[in-house]
Amino acid sequence: MELLIAIAVMALGAVVLGAALGYASIKFKVEGDPIVEKVDAILPQTQCGQCGFPGCKPYAEAIVKGEAEINQCPPGGDEGVRKLADLLGKEYKPLSAEHGEEKPKAVAVIREETCIGCTLCIQACPVDAIVGAAKQMHTVVESLCTGCELCLKPCPVECIDMVPVPETLDTWKWKYPVIEIKPAEGRKAA
Amino acid sequence: MAHYLFLLIGAVLVNNVVLVKILGLCPFMGVSKKLETAYGMGAATTFVLTLATGASFIIDHYLLIPFGLEYLRTLSFIVTIAAIVQLTEMVIAKTSPMLQQVLGIYLPLITTNCAVLGVPLINISHSYGFMESLLFGAGSAIGFSLVLVLFAGIRERVDGAEVPLPFKGAAIAMVTAGLMSLAFMGFAGLDRY
Amino acid sequence: MLQKLFKFKGGVKPAYNKHQSVGTPIATAPLPSRLVIPLHQSIGGTPQPVVAVGDKVLKGQLIGAADGWISAAVHASTSGTVTDIGPYLVPHPSGLSIDCVVIEPDGEERWIERQPLDYRAMAPEAVRTYLQQSGVVGLGGAVFPSHAKLTPSRDVPMEELVINGAECEPWITCDDLIMRERAAEIVSGIGLFRDLLQPKRVLIGIEDNKPEAVAAMKAAVQTAGEPFEVLAVPTLYPAGGAKQLIRVLTGKEIPAAKRSTDLGVQCFNVATAWTAWRAVAHGEPVINRIVTLTGNAGKPRNWEVLIGTPMDQLLPLAEPAPDTDGVIMGGPMMGFLIPAPDVPVIKATNCLIAHSPTLFPPKPPEMPCIRCGECARACPQELQPFELYWWSRARNFGKTQEYSLFDCIECGCCSYVCPAHIPLVQYFRFSKSEIWAREKDKKMAEGAKDRFEFKQYREEREKAEKAEKLAKAAAAQAAKKAAEAAAAAGSEASPAPPADDPEAAKKAAIAAAMARAKAQRAAVQPRNTDSVSPDQAEEIAAIDARRQQAGLEPPAPSPEPAPAAAPDGKEA
User: What is the pTM of this model?
Assistant: First the structure.
């Protein structure tokens, strides 16, 4: 008898709570996911697709859904992975080798004498950084290029090169002070 | 009145749920890397713990004891707390996106927080009344938030320090927590005057 | 008049070492064998070269035109031939090269046509543009284009104009000497600034370790009959920092993230006033400046040097001692070692100090910070350098900003007093440039995201437009068919109803006209069923029959609608 009462009480509790939760999940349904936005803000927006997703936003969505690892973004680099790990409370992992490696920032440059004006690279550029028209020479707007390399493959005459961005006075940074390690005076004498 | 005050202060400092009772260590270690997250977790825990002590008191007194089912306490408390947390999260997500931003990801963590289960059980074993239970719950939660924020502040600073490699990360955090625990032991004589 | 002076917190008193170079008057440095003039010598846009290799230039001729409002022109320092335009090493801590114009002097020093400017008769806007074209920039070290600073704020009335003659850094004496020797021209220049800004008061602040300069300026102000106040301020580094001098002279403290103009104060260096007056009164653009040569040198002295003079041709004038192992540009507190001995003198070069290990012994190794707070006591900006250091070292840049990193003026007081010999300013500079770089990256990422999203939107739109076009084409096809059908129907109904009443006749006329129009439209369309062989006709009929059977089409219209329509036209 006692056993039955126990089962009945627990079942009652389960039913009541379950009903409340079920009702709430319908009543208080929310659309959208603010975490995706936060993840997207960390990604470098090169839209290069090296992660295996068509752009940074889809990758962000995949990360939040747990369908992708956080270490698939070479342009974001090691620091990007660390930031993602921090935001999502996940363990830091080194960049996965299959998705490419971190490279110094480079921009695409079209060798203009070889360009045949096929517009294929213009269609490939995810951020509209290439200007030109059919049978007209194309050129890359350097300041808008994210260095995603998506224009390299479609070019039928292979006239696009990735050129590393040189350091200028505008982009030069003060370095982290390096402490020289020297033996202490006293110890040298001893 | 003084009784309630002592109960509250005792719960916050003397019987601190984390550092003296050693409950709820997972969020204490897990969400104390940054001050902001510690604030969020503290607020969320305070809210849920107070609610959970009230709810568990009602369940215990009006459901379990009348039917002689005291042995089902743990089970029924866990179920109740989990449901409350879920419900709170849904309500907050819908009604206040701002609060959701602050508390959002910490609320589900509380479901698996032993402090939230432990405090109602302590309440029962001390046979506190409803008001006392609520106060003890709130006090424990405030104590939890307090040490969480203190710990997060220390950890943020430790992040900038030159910690020897074997001590980096969790190890130095454990050492710090141990020292804090020792410090909180100093409150032990506070209520014996 | 007794003027109350104020104090700023902190500051240090390093050994001044000014006496070495003030004993002799300013001398003019000899013409070097070549001049390397960097195009980018001021804050803001990089001037574009307006000369080509091989061009003959005159002294004072424009070689780089200002690019944008925050930018100042660059001029040839002497007459000669442009031998190269390309990247050369410049005095910058980065050790990077920027575009420079190299001039081989012809030794004739032929000037461009110089004309004094009657600035009082000109609109202030024109005077500002003139100063920009003359390359007048702040010579105190920041090289901010002066014309931009001479634009009064629209919202805040200009209260005080502060002229900075404090020259607080050790070793440097170029401002001291220029005030002693050229006070009259400086005062005229200050008058020009006053006329452009219309402040209520003009305050000239000079540190009290330069009594000769104070006396000379006072005399010059009196001679000119100007109401400027020359004030000796207590000698305390960095009293010559703009914010500190403004604080001392006016008592105003510039809040974080605000500029002095927001409080109605503007600040200029004395040498800037001098160059501005040379530009206005003599038509001479900024092609030279006073440079202190001192340090580990036999004959420390101030020299009037052409901009672009390679430093290795200049320094021998001071006869540096043999153990000299480097050159510091600027003072020992804020200056830096030049990356190569032959870098040119630029507008920001106020002092060259021959460096030797005895004079500037290497710093002892960095020790751990013990949070003693000496740096906070010394900080003239009232910051907490030990906190900034802690977070900079941990690369926690968010925290450094919480502790107001960007209010740091990099004066070096904290590093100077630090008992642990921590290069604090280096850490702050590192943090600042990291934060700037990140901000830039973030902006780029946002732009890329916007463009990416727009591209996606555009592709969607184009797809939709294409689909719409296809749908329209299909609809047109359908309409054509319907028209044919209607025309055929019209021909069948062509016998006009009897014109009994005028109403009916009218209706009939309209219907007939509509049918005619339809027929005409149909007739224009090319048709492939017009002339068919009997075989083909049979085939078509068979197909139509099948279609009819399948219930795909209404009963087929007669195959020859056009001729049938003709009698209809005649009747009407």
Answer: 0.79
